[in-house]
Amino acid sequence: MAPPKNERNQVFLGSFIHSKKLDELEYLHNTAVCVDKSGKIVAVEAEHDVEKNLDTLYSKLGWDASNVDVHSTKEGQFFFPGFIDTHIHAPQYPNAGIFGKSTLLDWLNTYTFPMEASLKDLTKARRVYGRCVRKTLSHGTTTAAYYATIDVPATNLLADLCLALGQRAFVGRVCMDNPDMAPADYVDESADASLALTRESIAHIRAIDPDYALVSPVLTPRFAPSCTRDSLRQLGALAAETGLPVQTHLSENVREIELVASLFPEADGYAAVYDGFGLLTPRTILAHAVHLSEAEAGLLARRGSKVSHCPCSNSAITSGEARVRWLLDRGVGVGLGTDVSGGYSPSVLEAARLALLVSRHLAMPHQQPGVSDADRERAKLSVEEVLYLATRGGAEVVGLERRVGAFEVGMEFDAQLIGLGLVEEASAGIKENEGQEDGGEDDGNVDVFGWETWEEKVAKWVFNGDDRNTKRVWVKGRLVHTRV
Amino acid sequence: MAPPKNERNQVFLGSFIHSKKLDELEYLHNTAVCVDKSGKIVAVEAEHDVEKNLDTLYSKLGWDASNVDVHSTKEGQFFFPGFIDTHIHAPQYPNAGIFGKSTLLDWLNTYTFPMEASLKDLTKARRVYGRCVRKTLSHGTTTAAYYATIDVPATNLLADLCLALGQRAFVGRVCMDNPDMAPADYVDESADASLALTRESIAHIRAIDPDYALVSPVLTPRFAPSCTRDSLRQLGALAAETGLPVQTHLSENVREIELVASLFPEADGYAAVYDGFGLLTPRTILAHAVHLSEAEAGLLARRGSKVSHCPCSNSAITSGEARVRWLLDRGVGVGLGTDVSGGYSPSVLEAARLALLVSRHLAMPHQQPGVSDADRERAKLSVEEVLYLATRGGAEVVGLERRVGAFEVGMEFDAQLIGLGLVEEASAGIKENEGQEDGGEDDGNVDVFGWETWEEKVAKWVFNGDDRNTKRVWVKGRLVHTRV
């Protein structure tokens, strides 16, 4: 079951928008992006005169025109890099939107552990995971860093589904062997058992995708309180032995931080717990990092570990407001996570929107006494910046910054085709049936009147866009989602 | 052009969900709601055995079965009261999502005034207003309190469109006669001119809908800084003379509050400015009220004036976090406003979602030094509470609490039919085309697996729902929107 390949070379023609740097989008119009059979971008020809130059382009690439698929776009559509969800719990997908007024620790016991435990039933797991992967693809998520459950067959099934459906993924069997922090029916038996099961799942993924071309394992200690010292130590050693990425949670909630301090009194702060076991590597993804100290941010920067910012989750379960600018200023890489189902939405676009709004909450007058007006103003993230976090920032967080996140020669083609709705001139803006008029496409809630700049169109997409605007999605050059 | 009426009586059968009180939804299943030709609810028969009892019901009502339309629902669908948008600027609709990093005062000058001024062009106004009314209807907004522009013909056109498209609306010509706070081409010439134009627009609405059965004028001083004392005084007198509702802005932004203090040094606070001119009536809608003092909240409560909470706007343009619980505790009525385009979305459901999230931001640990842990916890709004604000709360704000907001005998039938997506058992949750599989309906992003309680289904709708879930919309018993 190797990852499927394309039979033909491809040329994508139209407008391409991607991040040049943190605060700058690049707009490439009348452009041709050439993608070879392996899914790699081999040419980006800006301001290309389509009619005249395709043959020249093919001969430069040594391509035979009869073996090239050409994808043109409609007016107003544009290609954007696929989104990268750096933190999502696939088994919690059915709970999206269900959390009441809970915060982290009671939310885990009330909603999360029972749902995760129930996915031992592989029929249920197939239904939930299949839906989750399809749904995130439909929102333009081309790469996802998944937490599965403690169960190996269900974890392996998630990896199989990602491979079959064509989503780039990191799939982690969840390690949790501290019986004081888990229900009796949902806990690893021991540190040794936890490690053995983790190795089993790694072996499965290596068997189905030997080069981790699409799907990779990721070591996944749930969070410090869930794991014994022995388990954390063994996982740190496994990270060193295999070079595999690591994902876990850090400093999400004030009560959780107090709990960590009581469980690991020897460590100088939450981040230091992981560091003590060799779990802060340049390939470590730390979800949340809301309440970090200066010393902890410095430690992350030195280790090269990255942060997955999850604004929907942090707002919904009242965890706090992560200081993204503050982290970036300290040299810590940041991407976005949906954190389903602490986060209510599987959409990275929603996470980008909320990242911008949360940064405004940090900029409000009463916030953080002691922070200067200028620093509060700087906390605000722009549309350009949250789109960077959703693409290149996320790529850096999952260690794929040279392979995905932009339209550059040498990168792989992970992309989404975006189409926005145009409000007609003629009929007074009045359509009989919103949505699917003329039996045609439903372009959702982004209304373009025609006078907007490209920057304004992108802002409208970020604020009112949804999966209806994501018309097609490609991973490694392979079409993995089409909206009728 | 009187408001259209239905020719026939109607029975709606199925599940009905509405607010019983602030923190409680009532679930009425197997229920029949009977609506007469005038759009009034004349019977609510809960746990109705449809087959057996319809004839009994008709004879009780004195209805002839041949003159009744029966509306049944599909499994899983439910009726919900229409949403009430207590604050929306129709002319700003094309700017939704466009605000950069601006805050109130620069946002007005950069984005808002130029767009509003341009709608003097009635062709453009028709396109924008038509789209705005259609779009808000498609999101389930059955009542909207609109700000138009200073231009009378364009304002009258908005009223005409609401009447023709069947949306219950308050339509206000914007009064702004302070030349220091407006562009030279977008300002009333004088206080007298401002009042005369306002009377013109009132006369037009009285001509098209004499009883204000569907569309009503509303006195609309933009906000204190936009108006001279003379203008505010005349508008206060007009409110007393006509008994018409009033809408304006209050205490949105810290700089704005400083500006008001400098312009009206004689008043003891922002709310007192309006009170001094007789503009705080029981029919006054005050948008935002983010930074009120105890004295101001007390003044609003004594006057019976109400607050339109606009969480999307307050977050997006960094105004602050309005303390809804604090206002309710002080006896001030609160509803929700989208505040397009300070708010980025025309959806009241999005405003409800954001109201819940903003209340979480108020509950975060570092917030508001001096507020106790218990009070912070109390600040959180539940799913039930934000849905109350979106319906009954809004009805109270616009003075329609006895006419709309719930399914009760004597109220008018303003309702939406909600349908959620059911994830199939069979195909492993994998559908080839998300969205419009089988050429059928697109149920959007709410995924129901079948094991959820009704409370959980409603929570899923609040967090992942959008206009795709609003299948049909009725105002006064008249079908005004159908999704394919």
From TrEMBL, chains A, B:
Catalytic activity: guanine + H2O + H(+) = xanthine + NH4(+)
All residue ranges annotated as the Amidohydrolase-related domain in the record: 80-480
InterPro entries given in the database record: Amidohydro-rel, Metal-dep_hydrolase_composite, Metal_Hydrolase, Metallo-dep_hydrolases
Cofactor: Zn(2+)
Span of the signal peptide: none
Pathway(s): Purine metabolism; guanine degradation; xanthine from guanine: step 1/1
Gene Ontology terms, MF aspect: guanine deaminase activity; zinc ion binding
Zinc listed as a keyword: yes
GO cellular component terms listed in the entry, alphabetical order: cytosol
One Gene Ontology biological process: guanine metabolic process
Functional summary from the UniProt entry: Catalyzes the hydrolytic deamination of guanine, producing xanthine and ammonia.
Stated name of the protein: Probable guanine deaminase
Protein's organism: Neoarthrinium moseri
Lineage: Eukaryota, Fungi, Dikarya, Ascomycota, Pezizomycotina
